[in-house]
Amino acid sequence: MWNLSFLLDPPGGLTIPVILGLGFLLGLMHGATPDEHTWPITFSYSVGSYSSRGGMKAGFVFSSGFTLQRSILTALGFLGLASIYAVYNLDGPVYLVVGGVMLVAGYYLVRGSDLHLPLDHALERLLGRFFQDHRHHTTSAKPRKVAEEGETGIRPVPLRMALLHGFVAGWGFGGFAVIIVFLLAPQMPNVWWAALVGTSFGLGTMTMQVITGALFARLARLKRLTTTQIQRIGRSTAARTLYLGGLAFMAVGAVVAAAPWMSGVALSTGNPIPNLSSIGYATVLVIAVVGIIGGSSIWKAYREVTAPPDQTNRTLG
User: Fold this and answer.
1) What residue ranges do the domains of the chain occupy?
2) pLDDT in tens, 55-88
3) In which region does residue 50 sit, left (phi positive, over 0), alpha (psi from -120 to 50) or beta (all else)?
């Protein structure tokens, strides 16, 4: 009964425990597959935490926001309001918002550090006054700032941004969302039970994201480095990935919003599992943000922290 076909195309007339169990299993699958709404963001915050425990916390915080959103979405699915997804492709607007939040989070980390990235001066003019106004409020703020940043010159990664990211990213609509919103949620007896479908799905995703976050965070420990070096690599990588990844999300979002038909342009892989069934712009976005931007950022940061002192200034940038 509980085979892959049953999971991906559940029939009607299921009991509440079976529906909630399906939601959790689908969440596990969702968290384990390369999804553009989860992996790039979890990677950014997890690596920035520079420890397995911090990575697990990043995955938990992000998934908490995601779980709340999915609970709302399945409740809307029960009420029939989520049918707008069947008519309108919201990926473009969602990408734009997610990219914007990533960009602001990355800018927060980059600002005042020795990193120099595209458009950072333009963002300084646009957002600098806001951050300056909310940056310090007491004469003892400067010592606290130094203590928080340590020797890295880069601010701590704000996990509250991961919570916001999880909630915003959840409005993206893929194959797994179709199953829980249109096939499972409507079978529940009322809207409150329908919301629990999204909750169970979010908890399944959370379980895998906590594991994935720990694995991502371990990337910085592949080499035998000091704690300070690992901290700098993690935060520098998070800054670059959030900042440049945000620009990538916004660029793709603008294109998809202008040309919604692109959602149908994909190369089929023959795999029935959502996120693995085809290669389209979502897959390219995951590879670009996690693989290219994230991978190159780790390598660049590693070279910076291991460079001889007289070469350090030439490697920064």
Assistant:
1) 13-309
2) 788 888 888 998 999 999 899 888 887 667 666 6
3) left
Whole-angstrom CA distances from 60 to 55, 67, 211, 244 are 9, 10, 9, 23
DSSP the chain: --SHHHHHS--SS--HHHHHHHHHHHHHHHHHS--TTTHHHHHHHHHHH-SHHHHHHHHHHHHHHHHHHHHHHHHHHHHTGGGGGGT---HHHHHHHHHHHHHHHHHHHHTTSS---TTHHHHHHHHHHHHHHTT--STTHHHHHHHHHTTSSSPPP-HHHHHHHHHHHTT---HHHHIIIIIIGGGSSSHHHHHHHHHHHHHHHHHHHHHHHHHHHHGGGSS---HHHHHHHHHHHHHHHHHHHHHHHHHHHHHHHH-GGGGG--EE-S--STTTSEESHHHHHHIIIIIIIIHHHHHHHHHHHHS-HHHHHHH--
Instruction: State how far the Cα of 311 lies from the Cα of 309, in Å rounded to an integer.
Output: 5
User: Residue for token digits 């603008």?
Assistant: 254
- Cross-strand partners of 268: 278
| Each residue's pLDDT tens digit, 144-185 | 444 344 444 556 667 787 888 888 877 777 788 889 988 999
Residue reference for tokens 């999880």: 166
Phi first, then psi: give them for residue 285, nearest 5 degrees. Answer: -65, -40
| Distance of alpha carbon 46 from alpha carbon 216, whole angstroms | 6
Contact 305, 154 (CB under 8 A): no
d(CA 276, CA 97): 25
- Residue bearing tokens 């690599």: 233
Structure-token match 């039970």, residue found: 193
Give the position of tokens 């959840």: 170
Contact at 8 Å (CB) between 238 and 45? yes
- Alpha-carbon distance of 19 to 184, in angstroms, equals 6
Instruction: For the chain, give the number of residues.
Output: 317
Dihedral sign (CA 132, 138, 143, 148): negative
